[in-house]
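Input.
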Amino acid sequence: MKRTTLAYLTLLLCVAPAWGPGHPRQRVAQQRKQTIEYLQSLQAKSGGFRAVPGEGPQSLRATSSALRALKYFGGEARDRAACVHYVKGCFDRENGGFTDQPGKGEPDVVTTAVGLMAVVELKMPAEDYTRPVLAYLGKHVKSFEDVRIAAAGLEAVGKLPPAADEWLDMLKRMRNEDGTFGKGDAKTRATGGAAVAVLRLGGKVDRDKVLAALKAGQREDGGFGKEGAKSSDLETSYRVLRAFHMLKDTPDVKKVRSFITSCRNDDGGYGVAPGQKSSASGTYFAAIILHCLARRASEEPLLSPTRKRGTAA
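Output.
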């Protein structure tokens, strides 16, 4: 009996990870916990999330960003029931869209798309919202940015819009002869955003030309940026990394991770760019980029969110 017990204890010592406070994995776990706490602190008592800590207004956009970031970092809203109530209050059933705050303002394409994403994250009955949202988007989508965010929202519920061919025609008219989008130093951002929209709508892109344009746009700081901007930002970097992810490729991953780290603040959140204050949107962009990188790599990246199935809108 003693020999059996000794052998069992020896086996436990051999297989148990000796992770002390200074071990990299332990630091990652602590950082992830801090980020989850930061995101949870943005939720107000009435259920919605603020864009930044404090007493500012809640918004559906911040709520959707925070919910999705929490999922990718392995957390959840502190008060899910209150959050469900908040999102329900933002739905304008008469118009079929979502407003940014319950009972205030008019729906628009962006708030309607992110509202649908919030419905999915909260596991609300998507069928109660999908049909009126499809009708609303069919009437109000007019521009490329409308198409881009609408396609993302509908991907979350696994639906193609009735106007998918029309939207694809719009994107086709924007395309350069070589299969890329945009001009000059706007090409990488434009190509990334448009390629993702095309793929979400069931279209096809010239993979080699698109990847070449994306890789050419990675900056010295490791990220990707807007036209005319000297530094990168997480919002543009997400557009580009999502395209890489859908095309099953990656840029220089080490440099991307370094850039994401440079956007992290002491409160556990992320600014949209280095030196900027933490926000729900900045933290979401960091989370989704890390998620995309984790799905493309066999090793666990620095501060990687838990790996979960699902879309990465």
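The radius of gyration is 21 Å.
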